[in-house]
Design goal:
This protein is α/β, with parallel strands linked by helices and 525 residues long. It folds into three domains: 169 residues, 3-Layer(aba) Sandwich (Rossmann fold), CATH 3.40.50; 180 residues, Glycogen Phosphorylase B (Rossmann fold), CATH 3.40.50.2000; 140 residues, Nucleoside Triphosphate Pyrophosphohydrolase. Helix content is 39%, strand content 23%. It has 18 helices and 21 strands. It has an eight-stranded mixed beta sheet, with helices on both faces. Strands 15, 16, 17, 18, 19, 20 and 21 form a seven-stranded mixed beta sheet that branches. It is elongated and about 100 Å long.
Length: 525
């Protein structure tokens, strides 16, 4: 099995959807699944990592990430990748990647999985949805894909967007515990402390987030201004840096609100810095108003750092209050400071939370389990649907519409069609199958008649099928060769029927409907 994964953000910004991808591709490749990641880059390049992972970078995806790229070019690139890599599964993340994937996949009909990392709407956003939300709602409108979400918070977003619960699976992400682990290196700690001007007895609060309003930084600042710990100075590290003048002004406001406690000034952190920061911190906190999951909390847990978070959906899927961390109500200053005090001053609370956090990672948020569950869902989608493509051949003889029907040894008269081969587009399959079963060499369809889906029981199970149909007009100059049927082929020589007779002769009601649709299209054209 080969998976083509599309995600513009790689390597990840600290936490979030990029980390999900990072963990997933490691889990898939470690499980022997061929994985091709299509992502952004400063230039077009390929990089093979081990036997099962290829990372393909395209500048156009970097441009699109910065809202200045060519969407059509990106679609062309993805079509080319599907044709050249011949994947079994297409998996896209985020709304724009999913839009590109849906358009490119119209040609191929690959099983398409989607993972969104759209944080639940915040109170201050109210009912006015911005362009990102509009795009999110649009790509989910058709219910034509399957969803793998990393939390119930993300699942709820989909339900609110009109997605059927039957096509959503929640698979909790894992943590790369080869990277996020307890570090025993006092020299490393000293170097980082010196760099950040931290003293050994400072109480360090790590807030791993970008400068976003929903991250609750103002709530945290108001709480920290009243937080006192006996004999220890409190130092706060917010990992994200302001990216605009507005964010810079806001973070300066937050710094003043936190006084007398101090926000540590620092440069840009990268992925390699994060395990060290988690190890250095006395507590990691997410004070968000809304959160999809809070994967940085999982990373902190994996490094043996106790965690505190707000009791909002997403975060409370990670933290069980008093068991593996502490929860507080969003906006409740007393609640938050008491939780921090428990971690700082009650050794039994801290030790219990750290111990149980490791158990949580072993069971609920496990990297291997994340990969295996994805593989199970991928395989199920490949096994449950049989794809084919075909067409309605029609001509006009003496002014009357005629339809060509093939003769099936079991079912009777049917439309020419056959199974889709790996890497073929719907149209390529239809053209090949029509030539094999009828001898007619058709090329450009006159009508797209749509994808027909049906199911039937077989051997105590349900078989799902889908077939794409096209309409091809056969004219006097249409080349006709002999049929190319294999010995065990159940389709025999067919013949032309006038329309009304053809409708009576066709064995399957779904195919009768396709032919009726063709006639209606002809009459309207």
């Amino acid at each position: 099995m080969k998976v083509l994964l599309v995600h513009m953000e790689f390597p990840s910004i600290i936490g979030g959807g990029g980390r999900y991808t990072q963990n997933l591709i490691k889990g898939l490749s470690n499980s022997g699944v061929e994985t091709v990641l299509v992502t952004s880059g400063t230039s077009d390049s390929d990089e093979r990592i081990g036997d099962f992972l290829i990372i393909k970078r395209f500048k156009i995806f970097s441009d699109l990430y910065l809202r200045k790229g060519d969407l059509i070019k990106a679609i062309d690139i993805l079509i080319d990748q599907i044709k050249s890599e011949l994947p079994d599964i297409l998996h896209t993340e985020h709304s724009l990647e999913t839009l590109i994937g849906q358009i490119a996949n119209l040609n191929f009909g690959l099983p398409h999985f989607v993972t969104h990392h759209k944080t639940p709407i915040c109170e201050y956003e109210k009912i006015i949805k911005n362009g990102k939300w509009a795009l999110y709602d649009f790509v989910n409108k058709s219910n034509s894909v399957k969803y793998i979400e990393s939390s119930n918070a993300f699942k709820n977003n989909l339900l609110q967007s009109g997605v059927s619960k039957d096509i959503i699976e929640v698979v909790y992400p894992g943590v790369d515990r080869d990277v996020f682990k307890k570090i025993v290196d006092n020299n490393l700690y000293e170097r980082i402390r010196d760099k950040l001007h931290l003293r050994k007895d400072d109480f360090v609060i790590l807030i791993p987030c970008l400068i976003r309003k929903r991250k609750g930084l103002e709530f945290l600042a108001n709480a920290f201004s009243k937080l006192r710990l006996s004999g220890r100075e409190i130092k706060i590290i917010i990992t994200g840096l302001p990216k605009s003048q507005e964010e810079n002004d806001w973070i300066n406001k937050i710094k003043k609100l936190m006084l007398p406690n101090e926000i540590v000034d620092h440069g840009e952190f990268n992925d390699d810095d994060m395990p060290v920061l988690y190890n250095l911190a006395d507590v990691t906190i997410l004070g968000s108003e809304a959160e999809g999951l809070g994967i940085s909390l999982l990373e902190a847990m994996s490094c043996g750092c106790p965690v505190v978070g707000t009791n909002v959906i997403g975060i409370n899927e990670v933290i069980e209050d008093g068991y593996n961390g502490r929860l507080c109500e969003y906006g409740n200053i007393k609640d938050l400071n008491e939780a921090i005090g428990d971690i700082a001053e009650k050794g039994d609370v801290k030790d219990r939370c750290i111990k149980n956090a490791y158990l949580t990672l072993d069971t609920k948020f496990n990297l291997k389990n994340q990969a295996l569950k994805h593989i199970e869902l991928y395989k199920k989608s490949l096994e449950e649907v049989k794809q084919s493509s075909g067409g309605v051949l029609y001509r006009f003889k003496n002014g009357k519409l005629e339809i060509y029907l093939a003769k099936h040894s079991v079912y009777g008269h049917v439309l020419p069609k056959g199974g889709k081969e790996k890497g073929e587009t719907w149209l390529e399959t239809a053209i090949r199958e029509i030539e094999e079963e009828t001898g007619y060499r058709v090329m450009i369809p006159n009508h797209l008649l749509g994808l027909i889906k049906w199911s039937f029981g077989k051997n105590n199970s349900t078989v799902f099928k889908e077939c794409m149909f096209y309409g091809f007009e056969v004219k006097e100059n249409t080349i006709k060769d002999s049929q190319k049927l294999e010995k065990d082929e159940k389709v025999k020589v067919g013949k032309w029927f006038e329309y009304e007779e053809a409708i009576k002769m066709i064995a399957h009601d779904t195919e009768k409907d396709v032919v009726k649709k063709l006639k209606m299209n002809i009459e309207l054209s």
